[in-house]
Specification:
The chain is of the alpha/beta class. It is built from 6 helices and 9 strands, in the order E-E-H-E-H-E-E-H-H-E-H-E-H-E-E. It has a 9-stranded mixed sheet with strand order 1-2-3-4-5-6-7-9-8. Helix 3 packs parallel to helix 5.
């Protein structure tokens, strides 16, 4: 049987299910011992969603990454306002090219954006979805993430964007970014998520 997606949480199970050829996993740590019996190989895994990132699970998460040689996308989900977990800046994986922090309840500050740029995953990232506090961090990310091709960003320092009172012609943040990043291919407001700006490098 072919599984394209599977979800694991922290609850122990007595299930005899044994799966392989998984392309997507959504997992909440801690990862119980049954996981590796249920999922003996992650060779086909392309996308991993971590539902709760915590520094105390750094070694377990790195082990999971090490067992997924073809992983392309790492997604973080956390809907509680907690400090950024610094282990994020230390994870390593040779094939991850997409980092998605859209569902991570956190806005990165200037120093954290700098750390992300110089982290192993940040250096090789081609597609980034992120929330930041300051607009200057957007410029820094574009100019310093050497392999970045697409950036999807929400910025806390702009007022809530409303279609009723703003258009691309007088969108203050978009225009500021265009002035600050004249060499990028395009900068535009995401019509499906008005608080998000898409930048094509």
């Amino acid at each position: 049987m072919w599984y394209t997606g599977i979800t694991f949480d922290h609850k122990p199970t007595t299930s005899k299910i044994h799966v392989s050829d998984i392309e997507y996993i959504s997992i909440q740590f801690h990862c119980h011992d049954q996981f590796w019996f249920t999922v003996p190989t992650l060779n086909r895994l392309r996308a991993l969603a971590i539902l709760f990132l915590a520094d105390i699970y750094q070694s377990k998460i790195q082990t999971l990454l090490d067992h997924a040689p073809n992983l392309h996308s790492l997604n973080l989900y956390h809907h509680a306002p907690l400090p950024l977990q610094k282990s994020l800046f230390h994870y390593q994986h040779r094939s991850i090219r997409e980092l998605n922090f859209n569902e991570y309840y956190y806005h990165f500050n200037d120093d954290e954006c700098i750390q992300l740029c110089h982290s192993p995953l940040g250096i090789q990232c081609a597609t980034l979805c992120i929330k930041v506090i300051n607009r200057e961090s957007i410029v820094y990310l574009v100019q310093n993430m050497v392999n970045l091709l697409s950036l999807y960003v929400q910025c806390e320092d702009e007022k809530y964007y409303s279609r009723c009172v703003s258009t691309n012609n007088n969108d203050e943040l978009v225009q500021w970014l265009k002035n600050s990043l004249p060499s990028v291919r395009s900068i535009e407001r995401n019509n499906n998520c008005l608080n998000e700006i898409t930048i094509r490098i």
